[in-house]
Amino acid sequence: MPSYSQAALLIIDVQNDFLPGGTLAVAGGDAIIAPINDLLKADWATIIATKDWHPVNHCSFKQHGGPWPTHCVAATHGAAFPDTLMTDKIHHIVHKGLDPKCDSYSAFFDNERIHSTGLKGLLSGLEIEELHICGLALDVCVKATIDDALENGFKVTLHSPASKGLTPDPTPLLESFSQQGVTIR
């Protein structure tokens, strides 16, 4: 197995509600679990996973004027990791989207930049400068996380077989990432 002993693996929102059968499923999203489990076998400085962790009255939900169906309500089955994900390898879990008044796509900050998730401080404390990112959805939360990681000076690698988006063809997004200096694997 490769060694990434100076890097962090960041797994974005691999939760039941974003997988087939969930309330906000990414088509074929379950296909990324085996590649993520393979990544989990490598030697990492740390492994961090994020979870949407919404209150029942979250502003992103359609019934509260938002664009999305109700999803990843805190402490529900939909917010849990799937049984097939090797969660025993995860060192830290970052919860996002806790404020009912603002959504949070990025693993670093909410969309309004009101709240930090604490991820930047965690990575700084661990002296991590390189992030390997994967997860769901590539064109929403993974993209927002990559944008914030770059803005905060991290070296970023995206593991594309371990990521899936709502848009069927990720090519334009991957090209945009490459132009921003992201390594695509």
Automatic annotation (TrEMBL):
<keyword id="KW-0378">Hydrolase</keyword>
<comment type="pathway">
    <text>Cofactor biosynthesis; nicotinate biosynthesis; nicotinate from nicotinamide: step 1/1.</text>
</comment>
<dbReference type="GO" id="GO:0046872">
    <property type="term" value="F:metal ion binding"/>
</dbReference>
<feature type="domain" description="Isochorismatase-like">
    <location>
        <begin position="7"/>
        <end position="169"/>
    </location>
</feature>
<dbReference type="Pfam" id="PF00857">
    <property type="entry name" value="Isochorismatase"/>
</dbReference>
<keyword id="KW-0662">Pyridine nucleotide biosynthesis</keyword>
<comment type="similarity">
    <text>Belongs to the isochorismatase family.</text>
</comment>
<dbReference type="InterPro" id="IPR000868">
    <property type="entry name" value="Isochorismatase-like_dom"/>
</dbReference>
<protein>
    <recommendedName>
        <fullName>nicotinamidase</fullName>
        <ecNumber>3.5.1.19</ecNumber>
    </recommendedName>
</protein>
<dbReference type="InterPro" id="IPR036380">
    <property type="entry name" value="Isochorismatase-like_sf"/>
</dbReference>
<dbReference type="GO" id="GO:0019363">
    <property type="term" value="P:pyridine nucleotide biosynthetic process"/>
</dbReference>
<dbReference type="GO" id="GO:0008936">
    <property type="term" value="F:nicotinamidase activity"/>
</dbReference>
<dbReference type="InterPro" id="IPR052347">
    <property type="entry name" value="Isochorismatase_Nicotinamidase"/>
</dbReference>
<keyword id="KW-0479">Metal-binding</keyword>
<feature type="compositionally biased region" description="Polar residues">
    <location>
        <begin position="176"/>
        <end position="185"/>
    </location>
</feature>
<feature type="region of interest" description="Disordered">
    <location>
        <begin position="165"/>
        <end position="185"/>
    </location>
</feature>
